[in-house]
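Hi team,

As requested, here is the filled-out complex form for the s-citryldethia Coenzyme A run. I kept the field names the same as last time so the parser does not choke. Let me know if anything looks off before we queue the next batch.

— J.
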Amino acid sequence: MSDIAKLQIGDNSYEFPLVKGTENEVAINIKTLRGATDGVITIDPGFKNTGSCESAITFLDGEKGILRYRGYSIEELAEKADFLEVAYALIFGDLPSKEQLEKFHSDIKENSVVDDDVKKILDAFPKSAHPMGVLSSLTSALTAFNPGSVNVDSEEDMYKSVVKIMGKFPVLVAWTMRKKQGLPLNYGSKSLGYVENILKMMFEQPNEDYVMSPILKDALDKLLILHADHEQNCSTSTVRIVGSSHAGLFASLSAGISALWGPLHGGANQAVLEMLEAIKEDGGDTKKYMAKAKDKNDPFRLMGFGHRVYKNFDPRAKIIKLAADEVLKDLGIVDPILEIARGLEQEALNDPYFVDRKLYPNVDFYSGIIYRAMGIPVEMFTVMFALGRLPGWIAQWKEMRLNKEPIGRPRQIYTGENHRNFKSIEKR
Ligand code: SDX
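And here is what came back:
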């Protein structure tokens, strides 16, 4: 393949360099397009064909169902690593040594205290508030309690910001859930691991010694790893573009949480459970919901199905589906919702509408079944997605700033009124 792309507009032809990645992906670098063509730009709603950056963090191949963080396959990481190791690899570029991991965890614990005045903000929310809205607000509020923007060119400064947010975010997640439940807001324990402390802060009951479940710890570790990064998805692109104005890390993460909240994105895991519950209430009539999903006049979509990039099975869904079986069996739970999910999947995988459009189960289709088995309320499902995605967002924000990328400011094609003169109100 030549290393240029040719473009013909009218009688003029133009050449643009090709960019090739380490996995042989190819892009046309059009940064000179508008100047060279006297104003012509490209347009690509939803950026389905447009790359926003070059990145060394996550590689995925949607046709082959491949997902790797820093070159490590998601299958190996889910099987052999723990979440903190994966977070370190995403943020700093490779898996940590034993000493690096111990220091990372110790520094995180030292920075996990949240200013008690944050509880006053939490008190102001009605119990009916959706946890994603609460979490986005509290994350943004962290800026007020940790003033001073991070100097990204200082490794020490950047590291301090990373351990601060990695320490405080799980506390905000646990407090968000427990506030809704009317339970005391507590902290983890110095003797416990990162994921174990998340479970303890979320589920510890007053007047009871919290008994750690290895099954829940392993399940949560795996789920957080599987959600940790996913290249330039909607919320990560949000974190990058907000950060490109040199807004702070916490402010950029708060914006990412809001983007993830949407039911077409991370909010789908909650929508999947609500859909499966509705089918169950409706007598398990999956065919009715399949028909609704295919009806162009019906806004209903089969939640947890389809993906912008995966036109094959989402590799994360495969792992989560197996884990759902294991966790429910280990916990001795028989959940009819799992059977409904399996039935829906089988129907969709054999239905031309879904097959022709390459619509397969995505990361959100089975994850809620595990969260529910763990005793996590359905409204907290997308918060758990954000908890997993945190290191990916941090890594992507850090890369964007270290690469000194310009402020994100897309162009447009104007389709409104041509020039017209002002009319006084009497003449309108
Ligand atoms: C995540 O980008 C990421 O990486 C995201 C994520 C991550 O880790 O960050 O992987 C996490 O967000 C997973 C996706 C969770 N969302 C859902 O499960 C919601 C249901 N899925 C859809 O809304 C949809 O599939 C999207 C939003 C995920 C993808 O939408 P696209 O790529 O814009 O595709 P599209 O809407 O143009 O659909 C193409 C066709 C359309 O039909 P036609 O107009 O061609 O006839 O497929 C149809 C759509 O109507 N379609 C569906 C469908 N998804 C697509 N029809 C019914 N049910 C669905 N779920």
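Two things worth flagging: The pocket of s-citryldethia Coenzyme A is lined by residues 46, 230, 233, 264-266, 268, 293, 301-309, 357, 359, 362-364 (CB under 6 Å). Residues 318 and 363 are 8 Å apart (CA to CA).

Thanks,
J.
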